[in-house]
Write a structure and sequence with these properties.
Layout: E1 2-5, H1 23-33, E2 41-42, E3 51-58, H2 68-79, E4 83-87, E5 103-111, E6 123-124, H3 130-138, E7 142-145, E8 160-171, E9 174-181, H4 188-201, H5 206-213, E10 228-234
Parallel strand pairs: 3-10, 5-6
Antiparallel strand pairs: 1-3, 1-4, 2-3, 5-9, 5-10, 7-8, 8-9
Helix pairs in contact: 3-4, 3-5
Amino acid sequence: MKIAYNGGDFYGFQSQKNDFPTIAKKLEEVFASVGIFNKFIASGRTDKGVHANSQVISLELPSFFNDFHKLQSILNTKLYPCIKVKHIWEVNQDFNARFSAKKRGYCYLLSQTSSPFLNHFSLFHTIKNEHLIQEALNLLLGTHNFSAFMKLGSKNSSTLRTIYRAKLRKTKNFYIISICGNGFLRSQIRLIVGFLLEIDKGNLKVCDFKAQLLGKQIFKIPCPPQGLFLSKVSF
């Protein structure tokens, strides 16, 4: 299933031991209400407040669900208004939404105007140095050790990640920072964007960004989560 969600009212995607609402917990509740009790696997775990337009989950459906369009309609009625199933399709038995994924893409939305109707889905920040941001983004391309762009307390067997694309583009009253890679560490995108905004403000330089990419700790404050979207997963 490909799903989209507004993460603003949720404590991230992954289920937690406490009673905090998460995307996974809501999905589990709705699935159980229609007779789906099998566990599902997600292509990635978004943090608290982060949104998704193309999250993918894999699971085994009971045999009586042979009309995917009908099932999609029933699920969307129950998941409304914050979560939507965009597509359901059949895959091979060995498909795994997490391990079969080859690329993942995230977008961070920067609004050039402040509005109460946009502030839950973007960060108000007026770009001043577009060329400096893109210069820093170009440094991300390739394989790097992103240990300096990772939230403390994270557990990973490796902090090496490969970035295939990193772009800044403008559309109407928004700038969009899009980064595509083979995977991401916890809060990696938000820490990168937070650093880029400091460059734009003139508080840091592109050479500082390069130094942190090489492992030197310079600035490690993540930007707010509401502007971040999981935008694409490729298999």
